[in-house]
Amino acid sequence: MGISFTWLGHSAFEMTIDGHLVAFDPFLSNNPTAAVKPEALIPEIIFLSHAHDDHLGDTVAIAKRAKSLVVANFEICTWMGNHGVKDHHAQNPGGGYDHGFVHAKLTMAHHSSSFPDGAYGGEPTGFLLTPKETRKRIYFAGDTALFLDMQLIGEEGIELAFLPIGDNYTMGPTDSLRAIRMIKPKFVVPMHYNTWDDINQDVDDWARRVRSETEAEPIVLQPGGSYTLQ
Ligand code: NI
Ligand code: MN
């Protein structure tokens, strides 16, 4: 048992939590860096941070085929129901719920959230996951700016954090270092960069700075690359 994950490109990840498959923000079909086709995923749970299409992506098709549970904010879950997704569980920032093998709490995120058709997507969120068995806490930030309340997230004791570093739409590399110093994760994984020109970043330079300016260990993957927590 334990935690392993694969970067699928952009903010899309597949993760195994104590033997259970989950996915985050499965944007694959229109993702120029996607490592797999959406048909390859069979997640039990899809954690969806907000409604923008570079996160919503293939959620509906995957959830219908794989009978996945979509965990997201209230407005997204209502929209899922209206688009034929049967299994969805609505939460909102601050709210935690026990999903069996994993407890999930939604966190705030400073960003926006609308569907591709312009419909309101509710508040953007991140996820704080506590695996029932392994107990190593995971923070998936979603799309967000730096915010001071990340200190509160850090107080929960974070093993593994996923943070955007692309700049332009979210925090960039320098603000992500300030975030890491507040969240204090043991390991940190960059996301939401090098998908398009406007979010290109030198990830090796970012990793050097993480090592020299924070206590965290950076985990830099190529799309399709995997890592297992020891
Ligand atoms: Ni977004
Ligand atoms: Mn985004």
List strands and helices in order, with pairings:
Blueprint (H helix, E strand, L loop, with lengths): L2 E7 L2 E6 L2 E5 L20 E3 L5 H4 L2 H8 L2 E5 H9 L5 E4 L4 E3 L3 E7 L16 E7 L6 E3 L9 H5 L5 E5 L8 H11 L3 E5 L11 H11 L3 E2 L7 E3 L2
Parallel strand pairs: 3-4, 4-5, 5-6, 10-11, 11-12, 12-13
Antiparallel strand pairs: 1-2, 1-14, 2-3, 7-8, 8-9, 9-10
Manganese (II) ion binds next to helix 1.
Word description of this protein:
With 230 residues, the chain is α/β, with parallel strands linked by helices. It has one domain: Metallo-beta-lactamase, Chain A. Helices cover 21% and strands 28% of the residues. It contains six helices and 14 strands. The strands form two sheets. The protein has a seven-stranded mixed beta sheet, covered by helices on one side. A hairpin with a 2-residue loop joins strand 2 and strand 3. The termini are close together. The structure holds nickel (II) ion and manganese (II) ion.
Quickly describe the structure.
This protein is of the alpha/beta class and 230 residues long.
Fraction of residues in helix: 10-25%
Total E-strand runs: 14
Structural class: alpha/beta
Q: Shape from CA axes?
A: globular
Largest sheet: 7 strands, mixed
Q: In DSSP terms, counting alpha (H) and pi (I) runs of 4 or more, how many helices? A: 6
Bound ions, cofactors and other small molecules, one mention each: nickel (II) ion, manganese (II) ion
Write out the CATH superfamily name. Ribonuclease Z/Hydroxyacylglutathione hydrolase-like
- Class in CATH? Alpha Beta
Strand order of the largest sheet: 6-5-4-3-2-1-14
